[in-house]
Structures
1.
Amino acid sequence: MPLITLVIEQYVQWRLGVTAALGLTLLIAGLKAENATCAGIGGVLLVAPAIVPAGG
């Protein structure tokens, strides 16, 4: 299971960046700990790079 999680996190980081990888980590940790705040922040960080245009 940890190997699958690592592969998914690496793919997310490659595709969407460090912010999304941090968001995925917080989301997973929040869900495992049943912490809604942590999971919510992780969810926002996970989708933020996808909806906010990069560059200037």
2.
Amino acid sequence: MAAPVEKKVTVASVAAFLASTGLLAILAAVQDNARLVGFLPDSLAPFVLALVPTGITFVGGWAARHTPRGMR
């Protein structure tokens, strides 16, 4: 069984996806050419491309060593 995913890793991954999708959509609009990846439909490209930094963020956060917090 895989180790549980911490909430902060999930939140960081969702934030990376949303930010990447927004930036890629803006980039496509500013360039006046939505064909970021030729084989994908224009409306789908920003969402699919945003999965790359999202995956990197998730794997990095999940694999990172976390130090336990002491009692205050």
